User: Which sequence fits this backbone?
């Protein structure tokens, strides 16, 4: 509800000082009294000193009571990933697990994954023979291959989820470093590409790298030289001549017909053809 006084209620005025609004429900078209009444109410409010404005005194407005609509629609929620849908169906709640877990066999804490983890094959001396093992197949090699395939599968799912959850029309930012495969098949970054990426990163700050601190043996970043703009002469004689010449060129290019290319006859110029006939005689 907006605030009203006995005197203002007679004229049908309602005030919202928080949004600096006044609502006049009277039939009169003159809104000057309503604006004047709102200004009087603002001057009656508490005044405070604002240090961010150089110690100026400002009016402390109360909270607004009028609901103002949004300028833009409410943003839509991103589409959930496959894991989020699955977790909601199964009632799985997101909880950060401890990195160290208790191992009953060694009676000590071990990492959940990674080096010297509980699932590390280095600590397993013997693996049971399963019916799916082929003749002469190493169970340790098979286990490593399964782990590698699982990692690749999870990475493929992660990329698919990112692509699905990405909003329409959004394009991922290109990488500054282009990775190419070397002789061994592994990813390799060329030296020229690294130098190029470093120069781009040096000039990506607000000062174009002028005030950035160099790290180690980092090469100096040459500052871009601004090209001076060439202006026409400002003197009367030279300026008029240059302007007249430029305008004539524009008029010729617009109004004069373009010259058509001259096509030579199939036998060549007539002079050459006559010389060839004389030589034959």
Assistant:
């Amino acid at each position: 509800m907006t605030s009203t006084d006995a005197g203002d209620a007679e004229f049908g005025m309602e005030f919202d000082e928080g949004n600096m609004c006044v609502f006049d429900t009277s039939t009169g078209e003159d809104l000057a009294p309503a604006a004047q009444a709102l200004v009087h109410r603002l001057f009656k409010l508490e005044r405070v000193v604002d240090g961010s404005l150089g110690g100026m005194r400002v009016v402390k407005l109360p909270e607004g009571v009028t609901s103002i609509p949004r300028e833009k629609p409410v943003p839509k929620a991103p589409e959930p990933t496959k894991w989020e849908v699955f977790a909601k169906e199964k009632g799985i709640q997101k909880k950060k697990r401890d990195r160290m877990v208790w191992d009953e066999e060694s009676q000590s804490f071990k990492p959940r994954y990674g080096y010297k983890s509980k699932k590390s094959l280095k600590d397993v001396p013997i693996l049971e023979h399963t019916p799916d093992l082929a003749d002469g197949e190493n169970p340790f090699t098979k286990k490593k291959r399964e782990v590698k395939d699982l990692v690749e599968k999870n990475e493929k799912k992660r990329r698919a989820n990112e692509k699905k959850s990405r909003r329409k029309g959004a394009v991922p930012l290109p990488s500054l470093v282009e990775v190419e495969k070397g002789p061994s098949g592994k990813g390799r970054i060329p030296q020229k590409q690294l130098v190029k990426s470093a120069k781009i990163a040096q000039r990506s700050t607000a000062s174009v790298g002028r005030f950035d601190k160099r790290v180690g043996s980092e090469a100096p970043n040459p500052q871009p030289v601004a090209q001076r703009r060439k202006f026409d002469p400002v003197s009367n004689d030279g300026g008029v001549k240059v302007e007249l010449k430029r305008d004539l060129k524009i008029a010729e290019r617009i109004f004069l017909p373009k010259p058509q290319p001259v096509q030579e006859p199939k036998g060549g110029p007539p002079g050459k053809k006559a010389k060839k006939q004389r030589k034959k005689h």
